[in-house]
Amino acid sequence: MKNDKFFKKAGSYDKLDRRVLLARAAASKIKEQITLNKDMHLIDFGSGTGLLLEQFANDVKKITAIDISPSMNAVLKSKNLPCELNILEIDITKTKPEIKADGIISSMTTHHIKDIQKLFKTFYKMLKPNGFLAIADLDKEDGSFHESDTGVEHFGFEREKFVKLAQNAGFKNCKIQDLYTIKKPYGKYDVFLLSAVR
User: Fold this and answer.
1) Looking at the domain assignment, is residue 4 inside a domain?
2) How many CB atoms sit inside 10 A of residue 149's CB?
3) What is this structure's pTM?
4) Domain range for 126
5) What is the per-residue pLDDT across 59-88, written as a single tens digit (0 to 9) for each?
6) Got the DSSP string for 105-128?
């Protein structure tokens, strides 16, 4: 487990209110924009313990959770969800899964990925025509959000540049909007939601 950066956090991850509230806010905003149905297959990239995906479990047929952390995946696996759940413990920057989904959701994960342009191109290939992309992540910040920078590739993102990367990958109808403000003892950090269509 020495390479599992979330080993110490996994057991208590769901107990932090701001994480739960962010997941609920993201799911609510996504559902305002996307009509879900019981035939749909969603992918949650950087799924962790499943805080985001479990908000969609009653609305879709199947969810594929993608996360490289064994300890986080173990917590997710222990949950009893009302939809089919497939957990892939892979790094999609290195291993491309042969999946075609109706939508990709993700929260607070892209800032851990070095090459965002390559990631968006991978997302594009993993979606069916007219499939949707919905990503929540940090606005540009001063680097103080994480107590440790281990595994952090970006101190948030400038919104216009983030949208441009999605457009360059082929996505259309790209929209970015305010989602949530994370409050920590030493500062406030805004989170945006990018939505787009393949």
Assistant:
1) no
2) 10
3) 0.90
4) 10-197
5) 999 999 999 999 999 999 999 999 999 999
6) EEES-GGG-S-HHHHHHHHHHHEE
